[in-house]
What we know:
Largest sheet: 10 strands, mixed
Bound molecules: (2S)-amino(hydroxy)ethanoic acid, manganese (II) ion
Shape: globular
Amino acid sequence: MRAVVARAAAAVDAARLGRRHLELASIGAIGETGLNREALTDADFRARDLVLSWAAARGYRVLMDGIGNTFIRRPGRNEALAPVVTGSHIDSQPAGGAYDGAFGVLAACEVLEALDDAGIVTERSVEAVIWTNEEGSRFQPTTMGSAVFAGRLPLDQALRASDTAGITVATELDRLFKRMPAVGRREFGFPFAACVEAHIEQGPILERSGIPIGAVMAIQGLRWFTVRVTGETGHAGTTPRVARRDALMAAVAMVQRLTELMADPADVVRFTVGRFEVLPNSPNTIPSDVLFTVDFRHPDAGVLARLGDQVASTCQANALGCTVSVEETLDAPPTVLDADVTERIRRVTAEIGLAQMDIVSGATHDAKYVALTCPTGMIFIPCRDGVSHTVLEYAEPEQMVAGARVLAGVVASLAME
Ligand code: HGY
Ligand code: MN
Ligand code: MN
């Protein structure tokens, strides 16, 4: 097995990986280093076209499920066996970077071709996957495609999700499927033997430690809420305060009380109000409607439950005469990744001469849901200054190559069994 691991890792082609990263990063590029490639936009579709053109050149088979998750299959000796799957996402934040998700898809494609180039015939097929709408910025919730795949989000609920322009996931998926008539269909929950996702850390630990590889032990839990506050519009100059039902003032009071609820001297709680929309959004009209989102994360399930269960009541208690609806769009407990796959990541990393450390993921990933369906692990590489979800996101080419080499070794060893 060590020989197969070494051959697969050695066959990773740094030039090909680097060239393809630049090609992919150019689709939806903003400025020198940024990316706006939100889920199910034309940029997402063009990025999928590019990745599938690489697959076509190698004669790999492509399948898609009902939420657009896309699977690129390199056949193994025994087609009856469940495949080993590796991949991530290619959608980005609206002002994001070219590494979050993209690195995992590029590394997955590189693994398939490295296996080809090394002449390795695996027992099991190996598949590269593109998960639909991991970011959840355009359509909530995050990790939508993998959640539907794993049976944790009803397809009809995902299809109804709409963006700020009122366009639904269903409408955009229709456009996607029409662009790819030749791509075969796959049912949800198709069995995998194992899954490994490669990703940038999106935090500073690996870079500060000077360690090139992270073996991810667990992913912290997260809960997402969408809060809608409805008041009454009116003239800014003539409406007395006592007569107002000002949705903005109520929303501000709610966010203030939620900030107090989530206060944590140990700075472990992650509480973010990332989206805040006001209607009619005019300087001299009293706001009638506010929508805001809550992204709450913590590694401890008990804290997630205790504080998360108070979000709705805290909003209701500060309605200031307005009506409030609080919709929980995601409730994902902390997820421990598979011990055997993680040990394999450590072993392969050592075999190819790289240092690694165990790490817990502050960011969420599709691996969180896939882990509910099969043994799943994650490989992290460092990113500069630990920043992500910004146009400054960056990872060194040699770090990407190191991550892809470890991924190739781990996937090869899993697919030989
Ligand atoms: O939100 C996250 O943690 C992921 O990067 N989308
Ligand atoms: Mn990601
Ligand atoms: Mn992200």
